[in-house]
Inverse folding.
């Protein structure tokens, strides 16, 4: 019998006839497949986890807040809100007199 080398096609490994019949090789292949599936499931669970998504969003926001133009924009927006609040309070007090 001539041994056919292992080949990879479309993401699967084609084993030679002798490797297909070797129980130790089959066990090793099964364990390797289980480990791959476990890593894939962990990666998918991490992607859809709400806590993970919140952490990623928080990291993005914190990275943006360190930029000077964002800080200046936030300061300007805060100043507008404070100005409108003071103006609203002043207008109410003036109407009461």
């Amino acid at each position: 019998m001539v041994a056919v080398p292992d080949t990879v096609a479309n993401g699967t490994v084609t084993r030679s006839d002798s490797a297909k019949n070797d129980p130790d090789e089959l066990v090793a292949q099964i364990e390797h497949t289980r480990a791959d599936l476990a890593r894939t499931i962990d990666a998918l669970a991490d992607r859809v986890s709400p806590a993970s998504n919140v952490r990623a969003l928080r990291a993005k926001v914190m990275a943006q807040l360190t930029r000077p133009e964002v800080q200046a924009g936030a300061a300007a927006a805060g100043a507008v809100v404070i100005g409108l609040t003071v103006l609203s309070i002043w207008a109410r007090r003036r109407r009461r007199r």
Remarks:
- The longest strand covers residues 7-9.
- Helices lie at 17-21, 23-48, 50-65, 68-96.
- Residues 1-48 form one domain.
